[in-house]
Specification:
By secondary structure, the protein is of the alpha+beta class. It has four helices and eleven strands; from the N terminus they run H-E-E-E-E-E-E-H-E-E-E-E-E-H-H. A seven-stranded antiparallel sheet has the order 2-1-3-4-5-6-7. A two-stranded antiparallel ribbon has the order 8-9.
Length: 224
């Protein structure tokens, strides 16, 4: 019996070589990406931690030192361990007095998730500082939430006082030029959606944490 031998065509051989080359290049690229990620992970984490610490000082005027606390499953606060979830940052002045507590929160903006840091003073029951940690809002419009002085002035004494263990008044956005109450956030003309998002993030995300901080503020005072 004769056995037929099939000889690969030149085009088939070329395709096989190309496939092998592409797989090899893809594997090499994946390896390089993994090595770069591993090599820079600690550095990136360190820089983020430094940036966050600087933001805490910014939203808590008069702060010289900070201590990180974590919210426990029982709704109280304790000194945070590394990698703890739901943390807050207590600030203290040179005399050891509490300057306030910084809270992270996030919510949907116009172009993506907005991450913010808010400084809360339990003594006055007000927001005393605000900083955008991360945002993808439209340059020249939505990103004004990070630098518009009139908008940022909303968060110097924003009323978040409590009644029956919840915000007495909802933090709400209002049109530019119409702010009449200390719990209102005056929006930026042309960036209404981004402005509204900030008010909603504070009302829900930060508003959820404020009653707990106020209730257990003695925990932070004990660190003086």
């Amino acid at each position: 019996m004769n056995t037929a031998t099939t000889i690969p065509s030149e085009s088939q051989a070329s395709s096989s070589k190309m496939l092998v080359a592409m797989v090899g290049i893809g594997t090499l690229c994946a390896l390089l990406i993994a090595l770069v990620y591993e090599g820079t992970f600690d550095r990136i984490a360190h820089l983020r931690a430094e940036a966050l610490e600087a933001a805490v000082f910014r939203v808590l005027p008069g702060t010289s030192t900070t201590i990180v606390f974590a919210l426990t499953s029982s709704g109280t606060f304790e000194l945070a361990e590394e990698g703890a979830d739901r943390v807050v940052y207590a600030g203290y002045n040179d005399q050891g007095a509490l300057t306030g507590v910084a809270v992270e929160a996030a919510g949907q903006g116009y172009a993506g998730i907005i991450n913010i840091l808010v400084g809360y003073d339990p003594a006055t029951e007000t927001v005393v500082g605000f900083y955008v940690l991360q945002s993808n809002e439209t340059p020249g419009l939505g990103d004004k939430i990070e630098k518009d002085e009139k908008f940022l002035a909303n968060f110097s004494g924003l009323d978040v006082s409590l009644e029956n263990s919840q915000l007495k008044n909802r933090v709400v956005p209002v049109k530019s030029g119409t702010k009449a109450n200390p719990w209102e956030v005056e929006a930026i003309t042309g960036a209404t959606i981004s402005s509204r998002a900030i008010a909603e993030i504070i009302d829900t995300g930060v508003g959820e944490m404020i009653p707990l901080i106020h209730k257990h503020q003695q925990v932070f005072q004990k660190m003086n």
